């Protein structure tokens, strides 16, 4: 390798050995001599997209919760304040990356016909990223719409190993079918590659790890490698050593840190599996052995795996479902022992609304771990958080009423300058959430998008006086 003459390491370089295939983060050696570090990314002109769903709405979408600013701040624009009880308070450190979109509706999740009444939990997940109304059916003729993550993957994911990555935290077993004559895919699938093609999500960290790094050619190979109690990194040690010798000092440090990060994640996965197969009583005995009983531990593992996938450009599009509707899971760390579904039915009693809000704060607070990792991971001239749009929200608003008006929506990150951040934008009454998604998609590389689901226009994600100077897609 000779960087002076312009020879350089390909962005698609993999370290391979014994069935493992490890992609690399962006290194200085991947930049041809005489070019700026951002040049390879400017040529690509893409923004990464991560979409995270919160099931069952939030306390701040109730009338009382909204009046207490539990989700939407009182002030709009840049001068907003997050009150002490705000669900968003755990993310205040990332205020400059935060665009709060309040008071939008997901009416496509409502019942359109009498026989659909009562099926809100069975529709909501599929509606969030499609903003379309699902066909009521248990058969293979399900139909809804293509989700925004898949629209982005179709345009910007074709050059990556994984055009998109679908993840979840909880499983769902309705024992023979879902309710109200809806196909279970509507309940479990955030990502829809087409109106009748849902994409299943992965729950186990080990499965995600092996999807990213191809740790074994077959299931038998992977099982045999795990029995040796050796790290996947050990199987590519020779390749790591060879590559390291060709790199400059800064790249050697970056490679060492990256390899150690992979090894640490694998070690944590192994600890979970060992603990859950030790014979000790589990908090979630029904969960696979590779799934942590701890919600926080599971979330952090899945966020670390997402970081690796984005950092190595294995994928540019991720969906993450952090729960499922009607879950009876409890979160004692939040300050209440009520189940999340039980707490969502608070009966408009202020004390009970606050219990639901405690759970909301705790669950959303896990996102701070991912945001910090993204902010601290530098690629070229900026952080991954600067180069990514992260959508968080729900098509359910007030879970107590099973309604879809005043649904919560956050957009985090800068998307290569397309999102200014540091804003609270409150939509006029009756504004579809789809309008905000149309605006987002235009900003991150889909300028031709005119409609999505039940949109009737656009809801800008910047202030009117800042729109003229807003960023576009650059790296």
Offer a quick outline of the entry.
The chain has 15 helices and 13 strands. With 475 residues, the chain is an alpha/beta fold. The chain is globular and about 65 Å long.
Provide the succession of SSEs: EEHEHEHHEHEEHHHHHEHHHEEEEEHH
Give a count of the beta strands, DSSP E runs of length 2 or more.
13
Radius of gyration: 22 Å
Shape: globular
- Termini Cα gap: 26 Å
Largest sheet: 7 strands, mixed
- Biggest sheet strand order reads 5-8-3-11-12-4-13
Instruction: Count up the helices.
Output: 15
Helix content: 25-40%
Average of pLDDT: 91
What would you call the structural class?
alpha/beta
**Strand content range:** 5-15%
Q: Which stretches are low in confidence, meaning pLDDT under 50 for 5 or more residues running? A: 1-7, 37-44, 470-475
Walk me through what this model shows.
- The protein has helices at 39-44, 63-67, 120-130, 148-156, 185-188, 205-213, 219-227, 237-245, 249-276, 295-311, 340-344, 350-365, 367-376, 433-443, 464-467, and strands spanning 14-17, 20-23, 48-53, 98-104, 165-168, 192-194, 197-198, 317-321, 378-379, 382-383, 388-393, 407-412, 423-426.
- The chain has 15 helices and 13 strands.
- A 7-stranded mixed beta sheet has the order 5-8-3-11-12-4-13, sandwiched between helices. Strands 1-2 form a two-stranded antiparallel sheet. The protein has a two-stranded antiparallel ribbon with strand order 6-7.
- The protein is globular.
- Helix 6 (205-213) packs parallel to helix 10 (295-311) and helix 9 packs antiparallel against helix 10 (295-311).
- Residues 1-7, 37-44 and 470-475 have low confidence and may be disordered.
- With 475 residues, the chain is α/β, with parallel strands linked by helices.
